Amino acid sequence: MINEESTVKPVWKPKEVPADPINNPAHYTYGGIEVLDYIEAKGLDKDFHLANVIKYVSRAGYKVNKLEDLKKARVYLDRRIKILETE
């Protein structure tokens, strides 16, 4: 049995940000976090391919269609893998 004191409390809470098609598109903030903020926090802004994988996976199905976004993510992931295999 789990009591109230032993339950995990969330550290992060989504922020309410009004949608702005240029600076803050709704499909980039779905889930309460700006995708670019996540990419920068993880240091992926220095890796074009992986940043695009995160971008397309995180918005899959919220802008175009899910399959199209996932295929775009796969293109960038495959290119990054190819680079790593040749290093």
Strand content: under 5%
The Rg value, from CA coordinates, equals: 17 Å
- Shape annotation: flat
| Largest sheet descriptor | none
Order of helices and strands: HHHH
Structural class: mainly alpha
Record field, number of beta strands? 0
Number of helices: 4
Low-confidence stretches: none
Explain this structure.
This protein has 87 residues and is an all-alpha fold. It has a domain at 47-87. It has helices at residues 26-29, 35-41, 48-59, 66-86. The chain is built from 4 helices and no strands. α3 runs antiparallel to α4 (66-86). The N and C termini lie far apart (51 Å). The model has no long low-confidence stretch (mean pLDDT 80).
Features:
87 residues; mainly alpha; 4 helices; flat
Would you spell out the secondary-structure blueprint of this structure?
Layout: H1 26-29, H2 35-41, H3 48-59, H4 66-86
Helix pairs in contact: 3-4
Quick rundown:
The protein is mostly helical. The chain is 51% helix and 0% strand. The protein is flat, with a radius of gyration of 17 Å.
